[in-house]
Each structure stands twice: as C-alpha cells, then as structure tokens.
Amino acid sequence: MSFITDKQTLDDLNITGRFSPQSLFSLFNATRTRGGEKLLDRMFHEPLSDPAAINSRSGVLKYFHERELSFPVSAQVFEDAEAYLGGSTGSSFLAVAGDLLRKKALETAVKDEQYGHLQNGLLATIGMLNALQGFLQKVSDLSTGQFEAVQAALNTHRAKWLQDAPEGQPLSLFQLARYDHLIRHVLREETENILDFMYHLDVYIAVSNVARARGFSYAQALPKEQNIFRTTAVSHPALEKAVANPLTLQEDRNVLFLTGANMAGKSTFMKSLGIAVYLAHMGFPVAAKDMQFSVRDGLYTSINVPDNLNLGYSHFYAEVLRVKKVAEEVAKGHDLLVIFDELFKGTNVKDAYDATLAVTKEFSTYRNSFFVISTHIIEVGDRLKEDCDNLQFSYLPTIMEGTVPRYPYTLTAGITSDRHGMVIIENEKILEMIE
C-alpha cells in the first residue's frame, strides 16, 4: 500500500513544487543533474510505507551525510555523457563502423558535426565511467543492491576495455566504433543501470549536504503496530532559528488538543510535525531529534482551507467538506496522522464550539490514528477532559511584558488562559483611529 495524502495537504505543508523557491523540494534540491532533479521530484511525490525500505534509504543518506563526498564528475561532462548514452547505435560492429565512416566523410566534406559530437560524447562517457570507478573505491563499504550491481557491471570482463581506453584523447575511427558498439549495444543494460545509479548518487549527495549544513537528523521507522510517534525536539526545517519542541503520541494519548493565541506559533508547530512525518516516510533527514515513528498509511491536514467561489462554497462549507473527506479516510481504518488547525473558524462561536467538541470526540475513538487539533475556543477543552481519556492538552503561551506580548513558541502542558486580544488592539490604537 502506498502512502496516501492529497493536494490540500501538500499545499498546506508546502511540500512539493519544483518551481516554488519556498517549497521543501526546493530546500533539498541541490542536485547537479537533470535526472537527479527528476528523481528527487519523484521521491517527494512517492513517500514510502514500509519500515525496512524507509530505514534503508535513510541509512544510505546518513552514510553520505557522515562522509561529505562530492559528485564525481563535472556537470558538463555528465551532460555530454548523458546525451550520448541517450542515443542508439548499430547492432553489429560492422554496422557501427560503416555509419561512423559515413559521418566522418560528411565532417570532412561539409563540416557536419555529428562525428565530432559522437566523439565528444563517448570521451565524456569514458571519463564518467573511470571517475565512477575511482569514486566507488571511496565508498567500498556501502552495501546496497544498486551499489553492488553497478560494481559488478564495471568489473565484468566485458567492461575491462575501460582500463585501456585513452581518456581525454581523440579516438581513431576503429576505436570509436569498437567502444560505441560496446557501450551502447553490448553493455546497453549495464550503462542504463549505471546512469540511474548516478542520478541516485546525485540525490544522496545533494540531500545529505543540505542535512549536514542545517543540522538535520534521521528518524527511525517502526512497524505500524507499535503505534507511536516521539521526538525530543521537532522544528520547522525552513526556519533557521526555529524553536524546537518535544512531542509523544501513542495509542492511549493519540490526540493532541492545542490552544494558544494567534501568533503564538500553533500553525508553525503543526506544520513542523506534518513535514517531519512526511519527510520521515521518504527516508529523508528531518528537523527533529531522536525521532521514532510507526509508519502511517497517510497524512491529512486542514490548515489553509480556501473557499471556492466558482462552486459557491463558503469558507465554512469548505471546512465541513474537508472534515468529511478526512472522516471518510479515518473510517476506512487507515492509520493516519491528521492535523486540523482552527476547526470551523468560518462560523459563529456557538456552532464552532459544538462542532469542534463533537468532531474531536468522534475522531478520538480511532486510536490507531494520531490527531492534532487546535482551536481558539478553549472551553471545548474542559468538556473534552470530562468525556475523553486519551487526549493530551498543550498550549503555546503568550508572555506579556507590560503591554507588549512576547511569544516563546515553547509547547506547554495544559490549556491556555491567555486573553490578550484587546491589549494588542489597544497597542495598535485602532479604536483611537475610528473615534
């Protein structure tokens, strides 16, 4: 089963987006090849749901994280080799030699560039393969199926010619025909696998370099049956001075009821948690320390739910439809992480109170999933304390220094009693402006 989510969640958490400079994809996209960038994009759209696969990928990334290695060839050499390998050649040596002889004649007669491009592409490929041979010696203790397959391909007797190939020097027509036939026909499958390995190598190095620079860590994936999430410090990966908070969710405390004033950091905290869980399911580094998590079937958020004027949806109705969508997925028995920021803020306080109370109570009965629900309506928390035994209550405080609010962004046990809205309004002298 694949990890399930939707566009609303990806937009809420700003996960994907190759052309969005603020996305998580852009944060990690330090790749040097087009194939590496495409692979990274695919990884962002295909989180994993198997603990062994997740831990295997994070283990490889951690391996590169600890070694500070560079991509073994320049971007230009790789681009030339990639273009060359993307073409085809004849199925026999004689057919290849005949075609090259024709291209050579055209180069002499009318300055046709095909022969020169072929020569440059093959030389770049030889250079790339030799550089990869040297790189593999640096990571000889890396143990993955893909790594071992590439090593075997380069060490096969059919690839021994590489040791004698004149690197960087023009090839004779006979050499060009021989090597072209070997690389693009005889060893076609092997070279395609090597190219794919280079894309993975690009991603591993790029992602681990970003993680090292930002002080990210690697989470441990656990079987879903353990039903736990814990970290000593989770923060938002895109914020350089983010405040980190601890969090534990488990079967008997699977709902976090979160309160706090606007600007206190509730939305940022919830986004931090959602992002950490999503990246962890990719096997990627996270902005969280000592993180362990039971794999989830999926992740749904409701943070920035837009109205839909074209369909005639008000903001409140859009919220209701969002809750309905998530309820359908929860009712199917999926093990999910669900994040609701300010449930039913598009309606009046009485309806919001009743709806928040009812929805939270119903969701809390599904102890196989984790829920984080925030609200301004703190009175709901008092009723939930009476009616549910599996909720934990936390808030993000506001500290008043005179008439000036300060937000420490530290998760604190309990339900907030902060009511400083009028103080902030008075600070901004709004009432004086309209008198």
From TrEMBL:
The keyword Repeat belongs to this UniProt entry's keyword annotation: no
Protein name: DNA mismatch repair proteins mutS family domain-containing protein
Keywords from the named record: ATP-binding, DNA-binding, Nucleotide-binding
Organism: Chitinophaga chungangae
Every DNA mismatch repair proteins mutS family domain range: 253-432
Domain of life assignment: Bacteria
Taxonomic path: Bacteria, Pseudomonadati, Bacteroidota, Chitinophagia, Chitinophagales
One Pfam family it belongs to: MutS_III
Claim: Phosphoprotein is one of the keywords in the record: no
